Predict the 3D structure of the following.
Amino acid sequence: MDAAAGCYVIGNLEGQSTREGFEFEISEDGITEAKFIVELNGPESKVTPNDMSCSQVGALTLLCVDAVENGKSVIETWSVFPERKKLVHTKSINGLGAFNGGNLFVGKIIGRCD
């Protein structure tokens, strides 16, 4: 796989989430005020702000993992669609009690940083 480099400023994440603490009911959710930097740069790929370990797994997709002790885990994907000025973000949380669950958000590419 040839890794594509790129850096995108993301905002207006909106979508749905579910949490064990709310009986896994699906609800509207989002991170509308926050901005993220998604850097696609092979082994140097990262999302800011985020302290997870990220790997570029496609030309425009990152997989980020935070494996916490005792089998707890958080896994995220960040897929950029520059031609549509959109990003799809998923998150899966397991082993964290009431916070177990997931998100599916669509965000807007609001700029480039490369």
Observations:
- Residues 67 and 98 are 18 Å apart (CA to CA).
- DSSP finds no helices and nine strands in the chain.
- The beta strands are 6-19, 26-31, 36-40, 46-48, 53-58, 61-68, 72-81, 86-94, 101-112.
- The chain has a mean pLDDT of 93.
